[in-house]
């Protein structure tokens, strides 16, 4: 069975194939007749143990536009609230004869674990602070459409690196596509050991957003994940915005340095904390393009997993 558990599962050829198919799917998305018969008779289950707006609904739309039957199960409202284990829940769902499980879970590694329990394709829709591979694919797709080939382009990713699964997947996919990546965060939100990782994988680190900003082709702001900060948030929200927020003056500095630069945010956004409304709604902001691309990219991922042949090629 083929799965998408980590961005590291995909080499450059496979990323390219997914992004190219997504471009075709995007064409379908923009036409009046959206449905393709490709996954007729297949069943996709969205199993979400953490809240989601974008990922769950775009996987649902993607599956339906490929004519799959799509079922949504969330942690709240399922028998997990009665104490059923993840394994029993997953085996129960799989016993109904599903073809693919799209899973979001608060535990890092959950999707990988699930893939060992079931005979279905498994897609990681976000596991704890670990990875979110379809987010990285849709981010790359969105940036490419505006910037062209990402080889050598400078992507600056700013924010709560410690709790972000988006940053890990983006780093892998962006480096796979040859982009230059700089991660920016206050020292308190940089995970330990990141220096060695940066050296090994060839990305840069900075605590100085203003120094890095003028050289960016794309600035990706990360959400401050206060729900994962049991020990409190340091620096304070005000200090964070002053040092690391994409404020109006920083938006102006970015546009002055590079009028073609773009702004991304995976959502949901904390407006006024990591990103100002001016930046979120700017002409250079790709936030809603990212959401739109999410459907096409997830159609492509489901297509490659469920309709490709056993060598991973598209049939
Ligand atoms: N970006 C993202 O994963 O958003 P949701 O939590 O709304 O799915």
CATH H-tier superfamily of the largest domain: Aspartate/ornithine carbamoyltransferase
H/E series: HEHEHEHEHEHEHEHEHHEHH
Give the assembly state of these chains: single chain
Q: What's the structural domain tally?
A: 2
Can you name the CATH architecture of the largest domain? 3-Layer(aba) Sandwich
CATH class of the largest domain: Alpha Beta
Work out the helicity level: 40-55%
How far the N terminus sits from the C terminus, by CA atoms, comes to: 16 Å
Integer-rounded radius of gyration: 19 Å
Specify the structural class.
alpha/beta
Cofactors and ligands: phosphoric acid mono(formamide)ester
- Net shape: globular
Number of helices: 12
> How is the biggest beta sheet arranged?
5 strands, parallel
Can I get a quick summary?
With 315 residues, the chain is α/β, with parallel strands linked by helices. Helices cover 41% and strands 14% of the residues. The chain has twelve helices and nine strands.
Topology of helices and strands:
Blueprint lengths: L11 H19 L12 E6 L5 H12 L3 E6 L11 H9 L5 E6 L4 H8 L3 E7 L5 H15 L6 E5 L6 H12 L3 E5 L9 H8 L2 E3 L2 H4 L5 E4 L15 H8 L3 H10 L4 E3 L12 H4 L6 H21 L8
Parallel strand pairs: 1-2, 1-3, 3-4, 5-6, 5-8, 6-7, 8-9
Helix pairs in contact: 1-5, 1-12, 2-12, 5-6, 5-12
Bound molecules: phosphoric acid mono(formamide)ester.
Descriptive terms for the model:
Asp/Orn_carbamoylTrfase, Asp_carbamoyltransf_Asp/Orn-bd, Rossmann fold, disordered C terminus, single chain, 12 helices, binds phosphoric acid mono(formamide)ester, alpha/beta, five-stranded parallel β-sheet, 315 residues
